[in-house]
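Ticket #4471: structure export looks truncated?
Reporter: QA, pipeline team
Priority: medium

Steps to reproduce: submit the single chain below to the structure queue and open the exported record.
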Amino acid sequence: MFRLANEKGDWSVPLPVNAYRHTLYTVLLSLGLALFAARVEARPSSVYSGASWSGADPSPKACAGAETVLLIQDVVPWDAAPDQDPNGADVTELEAQGKNWCAIGSADIGSTNLSGFKEIVIAAAQTQAFYNNLFPGGTIHPSISSWVSNGGILSANLADNASGPGNGGSWDGYVFVGGVTKVTSFSDDNQIAAPLQPIVRGSASCPGGNCSRIFDAGALDDLDDWGSSSHGFLTNLPAGTLPILTDENANPVMIQYSFGKGLVVASMTSTEWRYVGDFGTLPQNKKLLANDIAFQDAPTFPSFDGLAETTYYDVATSRFPSASGYGGPGSSGGAGEALLRIVNPTRSDPTLNGTLCAMIYVFDDREELQSCCGCPVTPNGVRTLSTINDLTGNFGVNQANRNAGVIEVISSRLNFVLGVGGTPPLGINVAGGLACDPTGAVGSASGSGVSGAVDPTPTLLSEMMHTEALAPSAPPFAPFSTSASAERFQNAPLDQIQLSSLQTDCMLLLANSSGAGVCNCGAGEKPAVATSLRAAPRRVSRYVGL
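Actual output as written to the record:
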């Protein structure tokens, strides 16, 4: 197969085996190279190509002494759109949100008293002189690391090697706050790793109206094909770092971490590039930068209602003790099967979420995760699962006590895509290419497909049937009385820390490849797009989880 390719695609032409092959090859090569050159020339890129750029330096607002937000910027990141402030994307959004801000150049970092600022924003796509000033001696300026350690909130747009006025300036080989370093690696396929983080969720208060939820829905919507979407990935991450966005290989391109009393959000994404619409040939997408700046005012993990539910199960403690020691002969407690029913009340309409995943996590009553699975539920459909046979029959930790515990269900979008020609991994039964993976092993591949993070989305509804035996309270002992009841699951407010913990624990539980720890999806209509239990254990990114 004859192949000409660039980073955005390829042309493939089969060559006949005959006397004219050499002539055809020559003609196709000439035509292909011409098409390639034209395509590369026409395609906008955020990456420095070697061409020099000249223009006036920006002159953003000077500091008077009462400002709470500081922008550090030497040149306009990439470009200034005609309908935006001539000083670039960061200035435009700071103004849109009504921030009390001012700006300095990189040469003024050491002479500026940073103590009065609550937030600092570092602009991307800067010159080599800028990065040399920001990293004197190869390490982040001590004034900045000290300021963060004392409680500052730092939003660092660190995409370098950029086209535009930055002329390819780079911080290659330098060390950022907390020892973070980076690897230059251009990607046009970014993925969501932390769907409940407010920068992704778009949940922070946002004057100006540019904030909104981030989706990974295809080219320019919102993360992919910005030429390039990210300019590298971050390494040597401090303990507790939360990856917010990753590239296609699960390498973090936007992260959040604590440093001393402060907080850092660091990004290698071309955030300002998409805000202005590159050099005018792409649509403007303001959400990521707007969400980031809005988050700095309230850098917390809010919890969300309507995304997760929980209840208990008890199938045997009237006769046998639970893992924690409750129950046994003569005790009141569970006395038989407990059926779980999950309903999807949405219509078969993509705008109303359609088929959803019930991500199920089953614990014993010693708080040990024992099984997990992801089960699709079709619109207006119901899925029925047996606690004894489907949820607890294949516990993963030493085939533990199965008599009582807790079930958590997260309502999520479909998050597993079967690879072209791939064979479904152990435990997945894919009908149309999409399925449910409760591990949310972001970007990791088993050779059969790719998983994204669990993406909580309203609203599956769950109900559990309980069968209870009640022992008489005093002698003479009468026979046990038995009753059955149905109970709606209780709303369990969900935040990103809990979501990350569930995914990571599930991934570790299933990593032994033995098949233990996999729950089953019971009975229910098989959706046209997928029928899924879980994704198989696969290469685990060292960046997943907290």
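Status: closed, not a bug. The export was complete when the record was re-opened. Leaving a note from the reviewer for reference: The two ends are 45 Å apart (CA to CA).
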